[in-house]
Amino acid sequence: MSFFEPALHGILSAVGRTPLVALRQIYPEISFQLYAKLEALNPGGSIKDRPAREILQEALRRGEVHRGTVVIESSSGNMGIGLAQACAYYGLRFICVVDVKTSRQNREILEIYGAEIDCVEEPDPETGELLPARLRRVRELMAAHGDAFWPNQYANEQNAGAHFRTTMQEVATALDHKLDFLLCAASTCGTVRGCGEYVREHGMSTRVIAVDSVGSLIFSDQKGPRYLPGMGAGLRPPLCDLRFIDEHVLVSDLECILACRRLVRSEGILAGASSGGLIAAVGKIRDRIPEGSTCAVVLPDRGERYVDTVYSDAWVRDHFGDVPDLWPETKGSL
């Protein structure tokens, strides 16, 4: 018997089939099973590899994209990196519209893949948000390039479809369709939409919970400052369909940071900011999750891209002041 998988047909064939692992030490007192889907193990480092691949492959199949097409998208990081990877594979020119909050590391990764960076410096004058300004810039670039394709991750049904066909199908299969609670980060809402649709279509009793940032305008009209990418948006995306979301939980940037640090010290999982948000959200609702339940979180990306923010004591103190317990105590299983 061979312990090796057969060779794959190119890097995009490695997208998906990420592991689902039990978390037993982050909240040792809980009376329910907690699992994490490790999307950091996609080749581009995040869950966004899935919709990036599906959107581009569908566009190629339909003839919307060919060798001379310029792909143009707005992204703060992960979707841009997923598209940059796919465009490099297919030999396509890619322009990524970022903003001043996009991290230096993400910009450098995009450029290494061959993406061209177009940075929006000022927020939208009407809303004060950067996302509408980025989207306006995408439309300007689309008009300037005759042969261009906009994946439009905020409205493209292939975004949610990727998670319906792969992410949630993998989670459900691993747990024999026995899942009581599922928590997904909200940004474009592609993940929570696709997973929620799968739950409804397959008659699962899973309660689908969207986790969003304090200050985001997806589920609230209370706008506030947000320093970390991965969750939240300056508007409610078209993919946000409340029919497939049972409830939402809001977490602050600092809660994300502390949960990330607890996760790496307790479970050995170095994850990104939105992953910390999901772990923090589990902590907020754990007292109302019945004993014996099964709960899963979809952890979107890896933590190496956050060493200058989430995992930097100096950065945290600059933005949040003197936080007394930056590295919460944890107890291992030995």
Q: Determine the N-to-C terminus distance.
A: 33 Å
CATH architecture heading of the largest domain: 3-Layer(aba) Sandwich
Q: Strand order, biggest sheet?
A: 1-2-10-7-8-9
The H/E string reads: EEHEHEHEHEHEHEEHHEH
The major beta sheet can be summarized as: 6 strands, mixed
Strand content: 15-25%
The value of Rg in angstroms is: 19 Å
Tally of helical segments: 9
Q: Which CATH class of the largest domain?
A: Alpha Beta
User: In total, how many beta strands?
Assistant: 10
Which whole number gives the mean pLDDT? Answer: 95
Please mark out the parts with pLDDT under 50 across 5 or more consecutive residues, or reply none: none
Total domain count: 2
The backbone outline, from C-alpha atoms, is globular
Query: Which structural class do the helices and strands define?
Result: alpha/beta
The CATH topology of the largest domain: Rossmann fold
Level of helix content?
A: 25-40%
Give your account of this protein's structure.
- There is one protein chain.
- With 334 residues, this protein is an alpha/beta fold.
- The chain has two domains: 11-41 and 156-317, 3-Layer(aba) Sandwich (Rossmann fold), CATH 3.40.50; 49-149, Rossmann fold (3-Layer(aba) Sandwich).
- The chain has nine helices and ten strands.
- It has a six-stranded mixed β-sheet with strand order 1-2-10-7-8-9. It has a four-stranded parallel β-sheet with strand order 5-4-3-6, sandwiched between helices.
- Strand 4 (93-99), helix 3 and strand 5 form a beta-alpha-beta unit.
- Helix 1 (49-62) crosses helix 5 and helix 7 crosses helix 8.
- The protein is globular and about 60 Å long.
